[in-house]
Amino acid sequence: MRTWLSDQVGKRLGTFGLIAPSIAQCAVGAALAWIVAVHLLGHTHPLFAPISVMICVGVGAGRRLRRVAELVVGVSLGVGIGDLLVSWIGSGPWQMALVIALAMTIAGLLNSGELFVSQVGSSAVLVAMLVPGEDVGGLDRMADALTGGVIGIAAVALLPASPLTIAGKHLSGVLDAFSTVLEQAAEAIEKGDMDLAAEALEGGRRTQTAVEEFEAALENSKEIIMISPLRRHHRARLTRYETAAVPVDLALRNARVLVRRTLAALGEASPPPAALAELLREVSEAALLLQLELGAGREPMLARQALLALAARERPKNLGFSANVIIAQLRSIAVDLLEATGMDHDAASATLTPLNEPSEESTRG
What we know:
By secondary structure, the protein is mainly alpha-helical. Helix content is 78%, strand content 0%.
Protein backbone atom coordinates (compact mmCIF):
# COMPACT_ATOMS: atom_id res chain seq x y z
CA MET A 1 0.00 0.00 0.00
CA ARG A 2 2.79 2.40 0.93
CA THR A 3 4.66 1.63 -2.32
CA TRP A 4 1.53 2.23 -4.39
CA LEU A 5 0.85 5.50 -2.56
CA SER A 6 4.41 6.74 -3.01
CA ASP A 7 4.27 5.84 -6.72
CA GLN A 8 1.02 7.78 -7.11
CA VAL A 9 2.43 10.79 -5.25
CA GLY A 10 5.55 10.73 -7.39
CA LYS A 11 3.47 10.51 -10.55
CA ARG A 12 1.24 13.42 -9.49
CA LEU A 13 4.23 15.55 -8.57
CA GLY A 14 5.81 14.79 -11.94
CA THR A 15 2.63 15.81 -13.73
CA PHE A 16 2.37 18.98 -11.65
CA GLY A 17 5.95 19.83 -12.58
CA LEU A 18 4.90 19.89 -16.23
CA ILE A 19 1.88 22.16 -15.75
CA ALA A 20 3.34 24.43 -13.05
CA PRO A 21 4.79 26.91 -15.59
CA SER A 22 1.40 27.18 -17.31
CA ILE A 23 -0.28 27.84 -13.96
CA ALA A 24 2.21 30.63 -13.28
CA GLN A 25 1.66 32.04 -16.78
CA CYS A 26 -2.12 32.05 -16.29
CA ALA A 27 -1.98 33.65 -12.84
CA VAL A 28 0.57 36.36 -13.63
CA GLY A 29 -0.83 37.04 -17.10
CA ALA A 30 -4.42 37.38 -15.89
CA ALA A 31 -3.40 39.88 -13.21
CA LEU A 32 -1.34 41.92 -15.67
CA ALA A 33 -4.16 41.89 -18.25
CA TRP A 34 -6.58 43.24 -15.64
CA ILE A 35 -4.14 46.01 -14.62
CA VAL A 36 -3.50 47.04 -18.23
CA ALA A 37 -7.21 47.05 -19.12
CA VAL A 38 -8.17 49.08 -16.02
CA HIS A 39 -5.29 51.55 -15.79
CA LEU A 40 -4.24 51.96 -19.41
CA LEU A 41 -7.48 51.38 -21.30
CA GLY A 42 -9.71 52.83 -18.60
CA HIS A 43 -12.19 49.92 -18.54
CA THR A 44 -14.06 49.48 -15.27
CA HIS A 45 -14.84 45.76 -15.55
CA PRO A 46 -12.44 44.19 -18.12
CA LEU A 47 -13.84 40.67 -17.76
CA PHE A 48 -12.55 39.46 -21.11
CA ALA A 49 -8.92 40.45 -20.46
CA PRO A 50 -8.09 37.77 -17.83
CA ILE A 51 -10.38 35.25 -19.55
CA SER A 52 -8.41 35.74 -22.76
CA VAL A 53 -5.16 35.00 -20.94
CA MET A 54 -6.57 31.76 -19.54
CA ILE A 55 -7.77 30.61 -22.95
CA CYS A 56 -4.59 31.59 -24.79
CA VAL A 57 -2.15 30.10 -22.31
CA GLY A 58 -4.11 26.99 -21.32
CA VAL A 59 -2.44 24.20 -19.39
CA GLY A 60 0.08 22.31 -21.46
CA ALA A 61 -1.60 22.88 -24.83
CA GLY A 62 0.05 24.01 -28.03
CA ARG A 63 -0.89 26.21 -30.98
CA ARG A 64 -1.28 29.30 -28.81
CA LEU A 65 -0.72 31.70 -31.72
CA ARG A 66 -3.62 30.17 -33.61
CA ARG A 67 -5.74 30.27 -30.47
CA VAL A 68 -5.09 33.99 -30.04
CA ALA A 69 -6.36 34.68 -33.55
CA GLU A 70 -9.41 32.47 -33.04
CA LEU A 71 -10.02 34.01 -29.63
CA VAL A 72 -10.04 37.59 -30.85
CA VAL A 73 -12.27 36.80 -33.83
CA GLY A 74 -14.50 34.54 -31.72
CA VAL A 75 -14.91 37.05 -28.92
CA SER A 76 -15.58 39.84 -31.40
CA LEU A 77 -18.26 37.83 -33.18
CA GLY A 78 -19.82 36.59 -29.95
CA VAL A 79 -19.87 40.04 -28.41
CA GLY A 80 -21.33 41.57 -31.54
CA ILE A 81 -24.10 38.98 -31.87
CA GLY A 82 -24.81 39.08 -28.14
CA ASP A 83 -24.99 42.87 -27.98
CA LEU A 84 -27.26 43.01 -31.02
CA LEU A 85 -29.68 40.36 -29.78
CA VAL A 86 -29.77 41.62 -26.19
CA SER A 87 -30.62 45.10 -27.43
CA TRP A 88 -33.59 43.60 -29.29
CA ILE A 89 -34.95 40.95 -26.96
CA GLY A 90 -33.48 41.73 -23.53
CA SER A 91 -31.96 39.28 -21.03
CA GLY A 92 -33.30 36.08 -19.50
CA PRO A 93 -33.10 32.28 -19.75
CA TRP A 94 -34.88 31.90 -23.07
CA GLN A 95 -33.03 34.91 -24.48
CA MET A 96 -29.76 33.28 -23.43
CA ALA A 97 -30.72 30.03 -25.18
CA LEU A 98 -31.58 31.91 -28.35
CA VAL A 99 -28.36 33.95 -28.22
CA ILE A 100 -26.24 30.82 -27.78
CA ALA A 101 -28.02 28.94 -30.56
CA LEU A 102 -27.76 31.76 -33.08
CA ALA A 103 -24.20 32.72 -32.20
CA MET A 104 -22.84 29.16 -32.36
CA THR A 105 -24.78 28.43 -35.56
CA ILE A 106 -23.25 31.42 -37.29
CA ALA A 107 -19.81 30.51 -35.94
CA GLY A 108 -20.17 26.92 -37.12
CA LEU A 109 -21.02 28.09 -40.61
CA LEU A 110 -17.98 30.37 -40.68
CA ASN A 111 -15.44 28.07 -39.03
CA SER A 112 -15.90 24.46 -37.91
CA GLY A 113 -13.08 24.70 -35.34
CA GLU A 114 -14.25 23.60 -31.90
CA LEU A 115 -12.41 26.40 -30.09
CA PHE A 116 -13.81 29.09 -32.37
CA VAL A 117 -17.41 27.90 -32.06
CA SER A 118 -17.26 27.44 -28.29
CA GLN A 119 -15.60 30.82 -27.82
CA VAL A 120 -18.30 32.59 -29.81
CA GLY A 121 -20.96 30.87 -27.71
CA SER A 122 -19.31 31.59 -24.37
CA SER A 123 -18.70 35.22 -25.30
CA ALA A 124 -22.35 35.64 -26.25
CA VAL A 125 -23.40 34.13 -22.91
CA LEU A 126 -21.23 36.57 -20.97
CA VAL A 127 -22.72 39.48 -22.87
CA ALA A 128 -26.28 38.23 -22.48
CA MET A 129 -26.22 37.11 -18.84
CA LEU A 130 -23.19 38.13 -16.80
CA VAL A 131 -22.82 41.77 -17.68
CA PRO A 132 -26.23 42.98 -18.86
CA GLY A 133 -27.06 46.66 -18.83
CA GLU A 134 -23.52 47.89 -18.17
CA ASP A 135 -22.25 50.86 -20.11
CA VAL A 136 -19.56 48.83 -21.81
CA GLY A 137 -19.49 48.60 -25.59
CA GLY A 138 -18.55 45.70 -27.78
CA LEU A 139 -15.39 47.51 -28.92
CA ASP A 140 -14.21 47.75 -25.30
CA ARG A 141 -14.72 44.01 -24.82
CA MET A 142 -12.87 43.31 -28.06
CA ALA A 143 -9.99 45.49 -26.84
CA ASP A 144 -9.95 43.53 -23.56
CA ALA A 145 -9.81 40.25 -25.45
CA LEU A 146 -6.93 41.44 -27.60
CA THR A 147 -5.09 42.75 -24.53
CA GLY A 148 -5.45 39.42 -22.78
CA GLY A 149 -4.29 37.52 -25.85
CA VAL A 150 -1.16 39.63 -26.28
CA ILE A 151 -0.30 39.40 -22.58
CA GLY A 152 -0.91 35.64 -22.68
CA ILE A 153 1.67 35.27 -25.45
CA ALA A 154 4.08 37.52 -23.54
CA ALA A 155 3.65 35.32 -20.45
CA VAL A 156 4.54 32.24 -22.47
CA ALA A 157 7.60 34.00 -23.87
CA LEU A 158 8.86 35.42 -20.57
CA LEU A 159 7.81 32.59 -18.22
CA PRO A 160 8.41 29.61 -20.50
CA ALA A 161 8.17 25.98 -19.55
CA SER A 162 11.14 23.81 -20.50
CA PRO A 163 10.44 22.35 -23.95
CA LEU A 164 12.99 19.61 -23.37
CA THR A 165 11.33 18.56 -20.11
CA ILE A 166 7.92 18.40 -21.80
CA ALA A 167 9.12 16.43 -24.83
CA GLY A 168 11.51 14.23 -22.84
CA LYS A 169 8.95 13.15 -20.25
CA HIS A 170 6.43 12.13 -22.90
CA LEU A 171 9.00 10.31 -25.04
CA SER A 172 10.11 8.46 -21.91
CA GLY A 173 6.51 7.34 -21.44
CA VAL A 174 6.41 5.96 -24.99
CA LEU A 175 9.75 4.16 -24.73
CA ASP A 176 8.93 2.80 -21.27
CA ALA A 177 5.71 1.35 -22.70
CA PHE A 178 7.61 -0.09 -25.65
CA SER A 179 10.22 -1.67 -23.40
CA THR A 180 7.57 -3.15 -21.10
CA VAL A 181 5.74 -4.77 -24.01
CA LEU A 182 8.93 -6.45 -25.27
CA GLU A 183 9.99 -7.55 -21.77
CA GLN A 184 6.61 -9.19 -21.19
CA ALA A 185 6.76 -10.88 -24.59
CA ALA A 186 10.25 -12.18 -23.79
CA GLU A 187 9.10 -13.61 -20.46
CA ALA A 188 6.09 -15.19 -22.16
CA ILE A 189 8.39 -16.96 -24.64
CA GLU A 190 10.69 -18.22 -21.89
CA LYS A 191 7.80 -19.57 -19.80
CA GLY A 192 5.57 -20.63 -22.68
CA ASP A 193 2.88 -18.53 -21.01
CA MET A 194 0.05 -17.55 -23.37
CA ASP A 195 -1.70 -15.55 -20.66
CA LEU A 196 1.38 -13.37 -20.21
CA ALA A 197 1.63 -12.90 -23.98
CA ALA A 198 -2.03 -11.88 -24.05
CA GLU A 199 -1.35 -9.38 -21.25
CA ALA A 200 1.56 -7.96 -23.24
CA LEU A 201 -0.67 -7.62 -26.30
CA GLU A 202 -3.35 -5.83 -24.31
CA GLY A 203 -0.74 -3.48 -22.88
CA GLY A 204 0.61 -2.81 -26.36
CA ARG A 205 -2.84 -1.87 -27.61
CA ARG A 206 -3.07 0.82 -24.93
CA THR A 207 0.16 2.52 -25.96
CA GLN A 208 -1.22 4.65 -28.79
CA THR A 209 -2.44 7.23 -26.29
CA ALA A 210 1.15 7.73 -25.08
CA VAL A 211 2.27 8.26 -28.69
CA GLU A 212 -0.43 10.86 -29.31
CA GLU A 213 0.44 12.67 -26.08
CA PHE A 214 4.11 12.73 -27.12
CA GLU A 215 3.21 14.19 -30.52
CA ALA A 216 1.13 16.92 -28.83
CA ALA A 217 3.95 17.61 -26.35
CA LEU A 218 6.42 17.90 -29.20
CA GLU A 219 4.24 20.48 -30.95
CA ASN A 220 3.93 22.39 -27.70
CA SER A 221 7.71 22.32 -27.21
CA LYS A 222 8.35 23.56 -30.74
CA GLU A 223 5.95 26.44 -30.19
CA ILE A 224 7.61 27.43 -26.91
CA ILE A 225 10.98 27.62 -28.66
CA MET A 226 9.45 29.68 -31.47
CA ILE A 227 7.77 32.13 -29.08
CA SER A 228 10.33 32.41 -26.28
CA PRO A 229 13.81 33.82 -26.89
CA LEU A 230 14.82 32.31 -23.55
CA ARG A 231 14.46 28.79 -24.97
CA ARG A 232 15.97 29.22 -28.45
CA HIS A 233 19.19 27.48 -27.38
CA HIS A 234 17.19 24.25 -26.90
CA ARG A 235 16.36 24.01 -30.60
CA ALA A 236 19.19 21.59 -31.50
CA ARG A 237 18.32 19.17 -28.70
CA LEU A 238 14.64 19.29 -29.53
CA THR A 239 15.49 18.35 -33.12
CA ARG A 240 16.64 14.96 -31.84
CA TYR A 241 13.20 14.38 -30.34
CA GLU A 242 11.60 15.39 -33.63
CA THR A 243 13.84 12.92 -35.46
CA ALA A 244 12.80 10.13 -33.11
CA ALA A 245 9.05 10.82 -33.13
CA VAL A 246 7.87 8.98 -36.25
CA PRO A 247 10.34 6.05 -36.04
CA VAL A 248 9.46 5.41 -32.39
CA ASP A 249 5.76 5.37 -33.30
CA LEU A 250 6.48 2.83 -36.07
CA ALA A 251 8.60 0.73 -33.70
CA LEU A 252 5.72 0.58 -31.23
CA ARG A 253 3.28 -0.43 -33.96
CA ASN A 254 5.66 -3.20 -35.06
CA ALA A 255 6.00 -4.29 -31.44
CA ARG A 256 2.24 -4.78 -31.25
CA VAL A 257 2.36 -6.98 -34.35
CA LEU A 258 5.28 -8.89 -32.84
CA VAL A 259 3.42 -9.59 -29.61
CA ARG A 260 0.31 -10.69 -31.49
CA ARG A 261 2.43 -13.17 -33.45
CA THR A 262 4.14 -14.28 -30.22
CA LEU A 263 0.75 -15.18 -28.81
CA ALA A 264 -0.01 -17.20 -31.95
CA ALA A 265 3.40 -18.90 -31.88
CA LEU A 266 2.93 -20.11 -28.30
CA GLY A 267 -0.10 -22.07 -29.47
CA GLU A 268 1.78 -23.89 -32.24
CA ALA A 269 3.28 -27.35 -32.07
CA SER A 270 6.78 -25.83 -32.26
CA PRO A 271 6.81 -22.79 -29.97
CA PRO A 272 9.44 -20.08 -30.50
CA PRO A 273 12.86 -20.92 -29.03
CA ALA A 274 13.99 -19.26 -25.82
CA ALA A 275 16.81 -17.57 -27.78
CA LEU A 276 14.22 -15.19 -29.20
CA ALA A 277 13.54 -13.87 -25.70
CA GLU A 278 17.12 -12.67 -25.44
CA LEU A 279 16.80 -10.80 -28.74
CA LEU A 280 13.64 -9.09 -27.50
CA ARG A 281 15.40 -7.99 -24.34
CA GLU A 282 18.33 -6.58 -26.31
CA VAL A 283 15.96 -4.44 -28.36
CA SER A 284 14.22 -3.34 -25.16
CA GLU A 285 17.53 -2.32 -23.60
CA ALA A 286 18.52 -0.40 -26.75
CA ALA A 287 15.26 1.56 -26.52
CA LEU A 288 16.02 2.46 -22.90
CA LEU A 289 19.51 3.56 -23.92
CA LEU A 290 17.92 5.81 -26.54
CA GLN A 291 15.69 7.28 -23.85
CA LEU A 292 18.61 7.96 -21.49
CA GLU A 293 20.88 9.50 -24.11
CA LEU A 294 18.22 11.83 -25.51
CA GLY A 295 17.28 12.88 -21.98
CA ALA A 296 20.92 13.66 -21.23
CA GLY A 297 21.20 15.77 -24.39
CA ARG A 298 23.68 13.44 -26.09
CA GLU A 299 23.78 12.01 -29.58
CA PRO A 300 22.35 8.47 -29.07
CA MET A 301 25.52 6.66 -30.13
CA LEU A 302 25.37 3.88 -27.53
CA ALA A 303 21.84 2.99 -28.56
CA ARG A 304 22.89 3.01 -32.20
CA GLN A 305 25.85 0.72 -31.54
CA ALA A 306 23.66 -1.73 -29.65
CA LEU A 307 21.14 -1.78 -32.50
CA LEU A 308 23.84 -2.16 -35.15
CA ALA A 309 25.22 -5.19 -33.31
CA LEU A 310 21.74 -6.67 -33.15
CA ALA A 311 21.00 -5.96 -36.82
CA ALA A 312 24.22 -7.63 -37.95
CA ARG A 313 23.55 -10.82 -36.00
CA GLU A 314 22.82 -13.93 -38.02
CA ARG A 315 19.19 -14.99 -38.05
CA PRO A 316 18.36 -18.22 -36.17
CA LYS A 317 17.73 -21.22 -38.42
CA ASN A 318 14.92 -23.79 -38.60
CA LEU A 319 12.22 -21.62 -37.07
CA GLY A 320 8.49 -22.10 -37.41
CA PHE A 321 6.30 -19.69 -39.37
CA SER A 322 5.30 -17.53 -36.42
CA ALA A 323 8.85 -17.40 -35.07
CA ASN A 324 10.05 -16.23 -38.49
CA VAL A 325 7.41 -13.49 -38.40
CA ILE A 326 8.69 -12.45 -34.96
CA ILE A 327 12.22 -12.21 -36.38
CA ALA A 328 10.95 -10.16 -39.31
CA GLN A 329 9.22 -7.75 -36.91
CA LEU A 330 12.36 -7.48 -34.82
CA ARG A 331 14.29 -6.53 -37.94
CA SER A 332 11.74 -3.84 -38.73
CA ILE A 333 11.90 -2.55 -35.16
CA ALA A 334 15.71 -2.41 -35.34
CA VAL A 335 15.47 -0.27 -38.48
CA ASP A 336 12.87 1.98 -36.83
CA LEU A 337 15.02 2.55 -33.77
CA LEU A 338 18.15 3.14 -35.86
CA GLU A 339 16.22 5.85 -37.68
CA ALA A 340 15.24 7.26 -34.27
CA THR A 341 18.97 7.64 -33.52
CA GLY A 342 19.39 9.76 -36.65
CA MET A 343 20.24 7.26 -39.40
CA ASP A 344 18.33 7.49 -42.68
CA HIS A 345 16.11 4.59 -43.73
CA ASP A 346 18.34 3.19 -46.46
CA ALA A 347 21.45 3.21 -44.27
CA ALA A 348 19.55 1.58 -41.40
CA SER A 349 18.07 -1.13 -43.67
CA ALA A 350 21.51 -1.86 -45.14
CA THR A 351 22.80 -2.87 -41.70
CA LEU A 352 20.51 -5.92 -41.56
CA THR A 353 21.88 -9.35 -42.32
CA PRO A 354 20.33 -10.45 -45.66
CA LEU A 355 17.57 -13.02 -45.18
CA ASN A 356 18.84 -15.18 -48.01
CA GLU A 357 22.49 -15.05 -47.03
CA PRO A 358 24.04 -18.51 -47.66
CA SER A 359 25.52 -20.34 -44.73
CA GLU A 360 29.27 -20.86 -44.35
CA GLU A 361 28.90 -24.59 -45.02
CA SER A 362 27.11 -24.07 -48.33
CA THR A 363 29.76 -21.63 -49.60
CA ARG A 364 32.51 -24.17 -48.96
CA GLY A 365 30.85 -26.72 -51.20
